[in-house]
Amino acid sequence: MDLLTAAEKIRSMEIRGASRIAKFAAEVMKEHALKVRENFDEEMLRASQILLNTRPTAVSLFNAINYIMRYRGESIEEKRESLVNRAEEFISWVESAQRRIAEIGEKRIKDGSKILTHCNSSTAIAVIKKVHEVGKRIEVFATESRPRWQGHITAKQLREVGIEVTLIVDSAVRHVISEVDCVLVGADTITANGALVNKIGTSQVALCAKEARVPFMVAAETFKFSPKTLFGDLVQIEERSAEEVAPKELLELGVKVRNPAFDVTPRSYIDVIITEIGAIPPEMAYFVIKERLGYTGITEEELRIDTRHYD
Ligand code: RUB
Predict the structure, then answer these.
(1) Is 48 found in the same domain as 127?
(2) Which residue range(s) make up the domain with 174?
(3) Residue 130: its pLDDT value, please?
C-alpha cells in the first residue's frame, strides 16, 4: 500500500482507535522503508510527517513514529534494517501490552459485574473478553458513541464471543449508572498530570461515575502517555466535519455545528489506569513518561530536536 493511501485510511477512520492507528503506522513505516532506494533519512522523515498529519489527538501515533525514527546506521542498508527492527519491536509491544493489560485488568472485575464502556477501545475490550474467558458472569452497557457509532462495533465484538450487551444512547449514562459496578474505557492520550483524553463524552461518563461512586478505570498501554505534555504542550483535540453530525438541510439554514472528537477527563475522576506495567494511579503518569518511555533527564530542547519534524 502506498503512503498516501495509508494516510487516507487513518484520516477517514477506516483504520481507527489509538492502538490500531499506532500499529498500522508502524506497519506502513516498515513497508515504506523497504521500498526506499535513496535519501533514506529525508524520505522517512517525509513519511513520518504524512502519517502524523492524519489525526492529531492520539499520542500513540506520535510515540510509534518517534520510536521507529530513532533508527541508527551508516549505510542505507543498516538504517533500513534498524528501522525495520524498531517497527517490528513496536508492533510486538502493542500486541504484548494488550495481552498483559487483559491479565491485570481481569482481576479488577468481579464475578457478576455490570461494566459500562464508551466508544470502541480494543484494549478495554481485551480486558472484558478476558473476564468472560476466565468464567466470570458479566454484562456490559455500551454507549452508542455518537456521531460515528463506535459503540455498535463494541456491542458486536462482545456479543460475538457470547457476552451480554445492552446498547444505550450516550445521554442514558446517568440513568443507568446506578446499575453499573464499574466503568472501563480506553485512552487516546494520557497527559503528564494524569488526565485522560478519550472519545468525546468520556468526561461526562466519568462525571456520572464519580457522582454515583462507581469506579472509573482506564485500560491504556504506556505508549498512550504523552512525552510532549511534560513540557506544557496541550493535547490537540480533533474537530471533525459538521456533516458527521447534522443533516444538509440544517447546515443549509446556517446552523453552526461543533464536532470535537475527544475530551479531557481530569485525573481526580480516574480510579486506576491499567497498563502493561501494572495497575497504577493517574498520578504516576509522570514516571511512566520519564522511566518507561525513556525520557529520563531529557531536556525540552532535546525533545524538540528528537521530534522536530513532528510538530
Ligand atoms: C477511539 C477511542 C478509543 C481509544 C482507545 O476513537 O476514543 O477509546 O482510541 O482505543 P476513534 P484502543 O474511533 O475516533 O479513533 O484501546 O483500541 O487503542
Answers:
(1) no
(2) 100-292
(3) 98
Given a cut of 70, the residues of the chain with pLDDT beneath it are: 296-311
Length of the chain: 311
CA distance 101 to 106: 8
CA of 17 to the centre of ligand 1 (A): 3
- In the chain, the amino acid numbered 39 is N
- The pairing of strands 262-265 and 196-199 is antiparallel
Find out whether 187 and 281 touch, Cβ atoms under 8 Å: no
Residue with CA closest to ligand 1 atom 6: 17
The verdict on 110 and 252 lying in the same domain is yes
- 157 closest CA partner among 116, 187, 129, 199: 129
As beta bridge partners, residue 264 has 197
Q: 142 pairs with which residues across the strands? A: 117, 167
The pLDDT assigned to 254 comes to: 98
Number of compact structural domains in the chain: 2
Nearest to 296 by CA among 306, 281, 305, 286: 286
For residues 39 and 11, membership in a common domain is answered with: yes
Give me the CATH number covering residue 21. 1.20.120.420
Minimal CA–CA distance to 154: which of 193, 188, 192, 115? 115
189 Cα: distance to centroid of ligand 1 (angstroms): 10
